[in-house]
Amino acid sequence: MSSFDFLSIGHSNIPADRFVALLRAAGAGAIADVRTTPFSRFCPWFSGRALAPLLQQNGMRYLPYGAALGGRPSRAELYCDGIADYEAMARQDDFNAGLDRLAADAANSGPRGRICLMCAEREPLDCHRCLLVARALAARGLSIGHILHDGTVEPHAATERRLLEIAGDHGDLFAALHKEQIAAAYRQRARAVAYRAKPNPAGRSR
């Protein structure tokens, strides 16, 4: 696992002890919670107020990042046809400042273990932690491993290959064309799974 700069996980509805076990097995030392609203009605142990002490009891840190890196923006210009626009979000100063802070936290972690991005969705390709945040980290030359619920850790490059397959594209040998194919596949997937604003959204969300 030492080859990864960051990890990611979706908590879904797994039990708290299984969640902690997955983090330990992958070598995570902190959770960066990228949910806009760190709350779970159906799994209350994943609400921020409960999760922070749970992690502390297990020697891990809780880092709230939802304000900067959350997937449900409050500003209308960050939606396209009512759907959160990840490409527009990735260009925002506050988002990139959040990435800078995340990188600094990771650099200062030392022997305490890697930072693991956390959101709710089990499948990385259903979640902005992969389609937005991990993509942006990868663009900075950082490596990400997605913790799956069977305990395997999928490199982000392998996740991108699955993304291309879902889009019906297996990539091209020419780097420039491949870059366009990846971007199109990200855009297509984001349109399918990103947060959809309610009519006249108040702005508070995931």
Please explain how this structure is put together.
By secondary structure, the chain is α/β, with parallel strands linked by helices. The chain has a single domain, classed as Protein-Tyrosine Phosphatase, Chain A, CATH 3.90.190. Helices cover 42% and strands 16% of the residues. The chain contains 8 helices and 8 strands. The protein has helices at residues 16-26, 48-57, 66-69, 86-90, 93-107, 128-139, 156-166, 175-193; strands at residues 6-10, 28-33, 61-64, 79-80, 83-84, 114-119, 144-147, 153-155. The strands form 2 sheets. Strands 3-2-6-1-7-8 form a 6-stranded mixed β-sheet, sandwiched between helices. It has a two-stranded antiparallel ribbon with strand order 4-5. Strand 7 and strand 8 (153-155) form a beta hairpin. Helix 7 (156-166) packs across helix 8. The longest helix is centred in the C-terminal third of the chain and has 19 residues, at 175-193. It is globular, with a radius of gyration of 16 Å. The chain starts with 5 loop residues before the first strand and ends in a 13-residue tail after the last helix. The model is unreliable at 201-206 (pLDDT under 50).
